[in-house]
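Worked example

This section walks through a single chain of length 359. The input is the sequence exactly as stored; nothing has been trimmed or padded.
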Amino acid sequence: MEKNIKDFLKRKEINISAKTYFVDAMGGMAQGLFASLLVGTILSTIAKYIGLIGIPFFETLAHFLSEAGKMSSSISGAAIGVGVAAALKAPMLVMACAAAVGYFANAYPGSPYAAGPLGVFIAVIVAVEFGKAVSKETKVDILVTPLVTLGTGYLIAYLTCPAIAVAMFYLGNFINAATLLHPFLMGIVISVVVGIILTLPISSAAICASIGIAGIAGGAALAGCCAQMVGFAAASFKDNGWSGVVSQGIGTSMLQMPNIVRHPQIWIPATLASAITGPLATVVFNLECSKVSAGMGTCGLVGPIGCFSDMSASGTLDAKAWIGMLLVCIVAPAVLSWLFATVMRKLGFIKDGDMKLDK
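Given that input, the structure is written out below as tokens.
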């Protein structure tokens, strides 16, 4: 037997820490969102335009993709549950139960509000940790582990999801409404804050999805994320070349975190760029984006695709929007960040190698 609780938790791989829950688990949450809600949205958008071709084969394909998209989106809670459980290194049986807990928490308490990703996140974390604690501790594990995992998860969802649902609903409405009333100021704030979160080892996509960010507020979030990713790719081109453009511009600016810890000033060019592109998105081009897409930036071009999908659905996708997406998501952050970084290099604030990515 273990000498104390610490030994027991270590054996069960239950690591109670901020990194475990706000970095690892939140990363799993983002993966689950991407694999379900985001992909479902993309499939539905593709189906919409394929169906316009008017040829029987493409109409059948469009119907299939549309149904696949709806189903993918509908199981986002279960996908988040699996993602979080995997991040927490849950045994297979616990992971399967986490899918059920996630599905339940995502839907409860239902109309008119739902707790969404944040409710799933909390319920699944508690359920998984309790499930891990009892896993394979009895001869009737096949019964005990599911009962404990599901029971704990459902109880936490029952106790927390109604309050979370209402809080997230009004917080999202407040942010979206405030951005409509003060698009310039809120454009700066949202773009800078969400962009910084994207580069930190925290999931900006999960946070945007939990809040329910939408409309031009989502456009500002998209601008900030793109500014960080494209901005670091451009600002560090001298150090990393084209491989850095791909890994940061289409991958993630999070790769720069070790360098930011050593040289915090290298964060300035991309952050200044986000303070400019945010208002461009909200005031000039009225770009719209919602939930997880808004927090993805140019990662796999998911952010621009989501913006295209949302503006297409709202009927606001025109030539101005296309120019805005190109300028705000790619051109402006690249040019601005490169200019700011060049000035800082000449002033000696940034030196060669400060943004060199680790091999």
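What to look for: The first helix runs from residue 5 to 11.
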